Amino acid sequence: MSDFPSLTRALEAALRAHAPEWTERNDADPGVTLLEMLAFLAEALQFERGVVPAGTAAAARVKKALEGYETPLIASQEAWSGVTRPRFFAGRLLTAADLDEEQRYHLAAHRRLLRAIYVDAVISGLQVSVAETGDTVTIAPGTAVDAFGREIIVASPATLTIPTGSSSSLWVTVEYAERPIDRVPIANSDAGEATRIEEGGRIGVTAQPAPLTIARLIRDGKGWKKA
C-alpha cells in the first residue's frame, strides 16, 4: 500500500532517472504539480479497489476529494430543472415504461451536451466524392450532430445516383434516422416487437440547402462535380 506522499516521491525518483536535467523541483514547477496529480489519481484508484483500507488518513483524504464539498454560502436558493430520472430500490416492481424512461433520461442528457457543443456540424468523415462519370456521388463513413443534438453515424460508404434532369445546383445532405430491428414474436401480433433501435443517417440529394449540407454539386458539360 502506498499513500499520496510516498507515491509522489516514487514518481519523482523515477522521473529524475529518466530526465536528470530537470532540477527545478519546487512547488511552483508545473512538473511537480503533474506528479502530485498522478500520485493522487493512483491513490484514488487504490482506494476504489480496496488497496487503501477504509478508516486510514489516506482513505479519508481520497474520500473527501472524491465527494467534493459544498461552497459556503451567505445566501442561497435552490433552482430545479424539472428533469427527473428513475430511482430504483430493492423490491420495486419494474416495468418496460420504467426502463424506457431510464434510457430517455440518459439519451436526453447526451443530446443536450452535444447540442451545446455542436449545432448542425460534421464531426468527422462524411467526405463527398463524385465519380468520373459525373452521375454518382459517394459519401464516406463519418459522424455528424444535428440541431437537436442527435448523433448521426454513417458506418459505411453510401453511393447515390443523381437523377437526370436535375437543376444546375444540388446539395448533398445528411440527417438523423433510426429503425426498429431484431424483432421477436409476441402474443397477438403477427409482426412481433423490435428488441433494438438502430441509429444511423439518411443521405440525400436536394435542390435546396438543408441544415446539414455536406457538399454542393454543380453541373458542367461532363456531368456533376463538387463546387
Task: Note down, in words, how this protein is organized.
- The protein has 227 residues and is α+β, with helices and mostly antiparallel strands.
- It folds into two domains: 4-67, no CATH class; 121-226, no CATH class.
- Helix content is 30%, strand content 32%.
- The protein has four helices and ten strands, in the order H-H-H-H-E-E-E-E-E-E-E-E-E-E.
- It has helices at residues 4-18, 30-48, 57-67, 96-117; strands at 121-125, 128-130, 136-139, 142-145, 151-154, 158-161, 169-186, 189-206, 213-220, 223-226.
- Helix 2 (30-48) crosses helix 3.
- It is extended, with a radius of gyration of 28 Å.
- The model has no long low-confidence stretch (mean pLDDT 81).
CA-based shape: extended
N-C termini distance? 64 Å
* Major sheet summary line: 4 strands, antiparallel
* Share in β-strands: 25-35%
- Element string (H = helix, E = strand): HHHHEEEEEEEEEE
Evaluate the radius of gyration. 28 Å
- For the record, the count of structural domains works out to 2
Provide key terms for this protein.
single chain; 10 strands; 3-stranded antiparallel sheet; 4-stranded antiparallel sheet; alpha+beta; 227 residues
Topology of helices and strands:
Layout: H1 4-18, H2 30-48, H3 57-67, H4 96-117, E1 121-125, E2 128-130, E3 136-139, E4 142-145, E5 151-154, E6 158-161, E7 169-186, E8 189-206, E9 213-220, E10 223-226
Helix pairs in contact: 1-2, 2-3
